[in-house]
Fold each of these.
Amino acid sequence: LSGDGTQACASCHTPQFSFGESSQFSTGIDGIQGDRNAMPLFNMAWNWGNKFFWDGRAPHLEAQAIAPVVNPIEMHNTWINAIHSLQNHPQYPQLFEAAFETSIIDSILVTKAIAQFERTLISANSRFDQYLMGQISLTPSEINGFDVFMDETRGDCFHCHGNAANPLWTDNDFHNNGLDASFTDNGLGITTGDPNDNGKFKTPSLRNLAYSAPYMHDGRFATIDDVINHYSEGLVWSSTIDPLMKKVGQGGVQLTPQDKADLKAFLLSLSDPDFINNPDFQAP
């Protein structure tokens, strides 16, 4: 799909990184670096808000798939050229015939195919999933970490990231989580044009954190410890700070070293090795 044939969706959304990337920023075919970290991809069929990307600019998965092809800092192609390449490929016309009962390829069918594949990326077999199904026991550290996560007087994480009854581990909403006092990237505000949305970004799922570093929309945190330290001591006030960041005046929730370690243990229990190693999701 890329202008020079060197880049695919999987160039920035790699199975081993939970369909994200290990670099802070993505680099397109012209060597130009973006300014956001590629989001991991899984369980998107249950995105009930129907807003994709960090800034919510795509209303559905098909719309999400159309933009990277023509983005000059990503694939830097035109859909006319991309369709020409696919139409003249030795296999794709047959594959489209099998899937859509037509060998005439267009951008609508391409994005539909990509979106349907993305909907099959289901991650649901972490240690915590197995614990909820009564298959295994968690360690005392993981149990305390979950308690920290759910306790408004300690981690207070559940408002944005859900609980055991929400296996997505995200509210699929947008929040300013106290990263900056002023913004070089307005996030949701770019999409809505509303200054009250500046600095808000989509809540990512907490699944598969063991594979998806770095973290945040700009990949600023290299480790889970960095993320926990941000919420514990690094919150920064701004005019659009989310009201859920109740302890921003104290710099954060002020976790003890033990609670930090246990929270990390719980978060890692949400990672699903079967997902990243699924042979159906590897390059053919």
Amino acid sequence: MDVRFLRLREGAVIPEVPHAGDAGTDLITLDAVRLEPGERALVGTGLALEIPEGFAGLILPRSGLASRHGVTCANAPGLIDAGYRGEIRVALVNLDPREPYEVRSGDRVAQLLITPVPALRFVEVDTLGESTRGVGGFGSSGR
């Protein structure tokens, strides 16, 4: 599937799927920022995408960044609707309680997954069908 894009800033890196069969592509920031413990920041990619109708983009954390440094996406997954045409930005947060983290221009900060989304129509009813789960939630299935 082709995904059209614009480079909004000089140096923006064209997304590419690194290996055949990979689901996502890395998002590379152009911004440099120091994330103190517990601090959040929005970093930009310099790219705008034209995600095809019937699809959405999900911004997901990079596992290595999270496991080695405690830096992840603050709103994971971030949602990019097909109609959005602004710069793709990533909300990062440093969850490490002690160490700051330096985000450098050119760093891979998140992954983008483009996935199909069904067309939804909500229908009001008088009752809902039975299920084995019922109304159980918020830990009702055990530890």
